[in-house]
């Protein structure tokens, strides 16, 4: 920990206090937000979506197609929090699509 870093943290704390923000509550809120973001990964939400489709009684062909499409994105996006997925990451998913034996132009 450098002196510069400590001064920046002190200044940030002073700013929050001047705005009437409780530092302990702010820390709890920040931690909860980080845990929420980490829990909402692409793979987790994809699994929830597939479970929802199954509960709705979707056709087996629909389930297979959606599972296949989500499976193409999982290697590139699987462990990423949803909030961190940007359009710039989507070309990574296209690599799996182009390599797929069932892909048609």
Query: What's the rounded overall pLDDT mean?
Result: 83
Helices and strands, in order, run as: HHHHH
Structural class determined from secondary elements: mainly alpha
Helix content: over 70%
- N/C terminus separation: 55 Å
- How many strand segments? 0
> Largest sheet at a glance?
none
Q: Beta-sheet strand percentage?
A: under 5%
* Approximate shape: elongated
Low-confidence stretches: none
Count up the helices.
Answer: 5
Q: Report the C-alpha radius of gyration, rounded.
A: 21 Å
Task: Describe this structure as you would to a colleague.
The chain has 105 residues and is mostly helical. It has two domains: 3-39; 42-99, no CATH class. Helix content is 71%, strand content 0%. Helix 3 runs antiparallel to helix 4 (60-77). The radius of gyration is 21 Å and the shape is elongated.
List keywords for this structure.
105 residues; mainly alpha; 2 domains; 71% helix
Topology:
Blueprint: H1 3-18, H2 23-39, H3 42-55, H4 60-77, H5 90-99
């Amino acid at each position: 920990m450098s002196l510069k870093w400590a001064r920046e943290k002190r200044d940030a704390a002073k700013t929050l206090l001047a705005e009437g923000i409780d530092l302990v509550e702010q820390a709890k809120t920040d931690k909860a937000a980080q845990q929420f973001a980490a829990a909402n990964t692409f793979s987790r939400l994809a699994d929830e979506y597939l479970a929802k489709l199954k509960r709705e009684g979707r056709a087996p062909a629909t389930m297979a197609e959606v599972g296949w499409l989500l499976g193409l994105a999982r290697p590139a996006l699987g462990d990423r929090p949803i909030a961190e997925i940007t359009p710039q990451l989507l070309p990574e998913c296209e690599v799996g699509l182009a390599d797929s034996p069932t892909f048609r132009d």
